[in-house]
Amino acid sequence: MGLYGGLRRGIEMFGFLAPTPLQKKAIPAINKEDELIVEAVTSCGKTVSFAISVIQQLLELDRFDQILVIAQHFEASVAISNLIKSLAKFTRVTCIDCGHANEFNSMNEFAGSFDRTTNIIVGSPYQMQFLVAKKTFYINSIKMVVVDDADKLFEEGFNDHVSTVFNSCNPSVKKVFLCRTVTSHVSQSARQLSSNLVKVLMESDVDLSKFKHYYVDARKDDRKFALLCEIYRILGLNKALIYCNSDLSSYELQKRLQKQGIRIIEIDTLFSASFEQKNSSKISATVVSDNYKMNVDLDVELIINYDFPMFYETYKQRLNGRLSNVKAMVSLVTGFEVN
């Protein structure tokens, strides 16, 4: 794909020996198009694709040019920044995540300490809006703005924050929106910011026929927890990944399972858990929502949909993560979900 030697070395050191078919499609598109919306399920490679693309483009531009990346939240900005730093390790490209702002007394103090020559700046919508308003960046140096998880940001009402960043840049700035699902609302929100969007669909290549699928009729939502505990009593939840439809639901389920004496890996400790911890027989399950990005490989044999996904693509997405040894998916269904 014509990548620079230092970037290729960083990619190989990170553990990627060859691009996936999806990445072969996405990386040239991100490099070529000026206004792009990419639809791809989690763990199929869109974050790596855009990271490689922005590093490659910066190596082709002036050494003081910049790219802004708007992430969904603090944890996402840190993860994206760490990925970019690893891939760009053997290049001149520099990157900072605005999570470091927490080390300062205020955002004003952080903005005052900001190195304006940094090539890639990653931050949340609030942080990016603040830094742009403070004229922290050289506007003429900004060549691209990437909005990661754009569908989630638009659904959560961050349209104005993203719009402020775009309006502060030159009209010619390149715009890239990365989404898991492009609904009509997401498409409309993106086109209000960028009228000539080219869409790239990175379809999931997961083969559902390779897995066994079981559906358990819970009849009512308040019976699902009792059924989950019964599954634990009969089968055990060792090496199980339990999905909920929201962060709040997953947090509440974690606490309820812990009260039952069931040992789990919590979402906020999953990133720092060692391999031995993740595969310990003392750990019974991992509870996550669809917002969780699978940045580590998990030895999982069973996936449980505590909350049945609202979209078919989400169902496939839950089987498309960086998982090994998955054999089956069990879904607890109620009401209309039975059909």
Describe this entry's structure for a reader:
With 339 residues, this protein is α/β, with parallel strands linked by helices. It has helices at residues 5-14, 21-32, 46-60, 74-87, 107-112, 125-133, 150-155, 159-168, 184-193, 224-235, 247-259, 267-270, 275-278, 312-317, and strands spanning 35-40, 66-70, 95-97, 120-123, 142-147, 174-179, 198-202, 212-219, 240-244, 264-265, 285-289, 298-299, 302-305, 323-324, 328-334. It has 2 domains: 5-202, P-loop containing nucleotide triphosphate hydrolases (Rossmann fold); 208-268 and 280-334, 3-Layer(aba) Sandwich (Rossmann fold). Helix content is 39%, strand content 21%. Strand 3 (95-97), helix 5 and strand 4 (120-123) form a beta-alpha-beta unit.
